[in-house]
Amino acid sequence: MSPTPSDATLEEITKLINFETVSRDSNLPLINYVSERLNALGIESKLIHDATGQKANLLATIPAGDGTRTGGIVLSGHTDVVPVDGQDWSSDPFTPQIRDGKLYARGACDMKAFIGVVMTRLDSMVGTKLSEPIHLAFSYDEEVGCIGAVDLVAAITADGLTPRGAIVGEPTSMRVVRGHKSVNVIRVDFHGIAAHSSLTTQGVNAISAAADFAAFVDAKAKEFASAGASDEAFIVPYTTTTVNQIQGGIAVNTIPALCTLHFEFRSIGADDPVALIENFRAEALRIEAIMKAQNPEARVEFAVLA
User: Fold this and answer.
1) For a 10 Å CB count at each end of the chain, is N or C smaller?
2) Is the pTM of this model over 0.90?
3) Closest-CA residue to 183 (of 83, 276, 57)
């Protein structure tokens, strides 16, 4: 097969790039376009919206020749792109341009080209007597934490589709990547009690509590590296965790009443991400108990964002 895309494929990719689906904005115009294309071929789409109704995942099944809708392969891609604000583009990022044999645009590589190829092949997929079904799974908000994919996977499970595999069209330097660490993003809000810094016993220091939690995360990171399971297929062959954002305090002479911490962990297959989340949650509860001993009004909120 020629590495050069056909005119029809380039036309489809261009249509998709023209939809400015930056993560902060709606992706519905693109999703509705895909849904209409599928509907014209007799393929029904399921839209799974976010809480605002302004974004949606799309799930559709092209059945096998014998009508089977379960099993088969998922073709998966995300519809959102990262912002272009403040970036020095030499051409309009949402108007694709070919220069020196390469296509330049926001999302050209990541990852509307893949979705465009899939869209170009819809007629042949529908018109072929497939030996197994093909499922299309297009998500929103991948760039800000794979948020849409959570409900998309839930819909695949609820519908009992049980696919045997998935092809995710991320480019990965044009190499086949067979696995990915589990990505988990967690926010922890430490609600202390404000007081003047000269009256420390009257307050509960939210930053100190967050610092204790950050130390626990760092200790877990060292534990994973020194004594944890490993998988040499990864560049970093063990589970990692790190605190990446922290905000707290309002003045140098005030005991901080609030501190918010964001951390993530990326686990290999040998480590159960659900169990790890509960381990981190238990530490948050331990710290909360210490805070409450100082003042019952203090508390800790633990939220899994992705």
Assistant:
1) N
2) no
3) 276
Q: How far apart are CA 31 and CA 203, in angstroms?
A: 51
Q: Are 76 and 168 within 8 A, CB to CB?
A: yes
Measured distance CA(190)–CA(206) in Å, rounded: 5
Judge whether 80 counts as a catalytic residue.
Answer: yes
Answer yes or no: 92 catalytic.
no
User: What's the rounded Cα separation, in Å, for the pair 5 and 114?
Assistant: 11
Pick left, alpha or beta for residue 5 (phi over 0 → left; psi -120 to 50 → alpha; otherwise beta): beta
Residues paired with residue 186 on neighbouring β-strands, in sequence order: 263, 304
Residue whose structure tokens are 């709606």: 26
Percentage of the chain surpassing pLDDT 90?
Answer: 91
Q: Express each pLDDT in 239-262 by its tens digit.
A: 999 999 999 999 999 999 999 999
- Distance CA(284)–CA(276), nearest Å, equals 13
| Confidence category of residue 3, pLDDT binned at 50, 70, 90 | low
Q: From its phi and psi, is residue 86 left (phi > 0), alpha (psi between -120 and 50) or beta? A: left
Residue 137: count of CB within 10 angstroms of its CB? 25
DSSP class of residue 112?
I
Which position among 12, 110, 142, 271 bears the catalytic label?
142
Backbone φ and ψ for 184, nearest 5 degrees, come out as -135, 120
> CA 225, 229, 231: angle at the middle one, nearest 5?
95
Six-digit token string for 279 = 């381990």
Going by their DSSP bridges, the two strands 195-196 and 254-255 should be labelled as antiparallel
Which residues is 188 bridged to in the sheet? Answer: 261, 302
Residue 2's contacts (CB-CB under 8 Å, 6 or more residues apart) are none
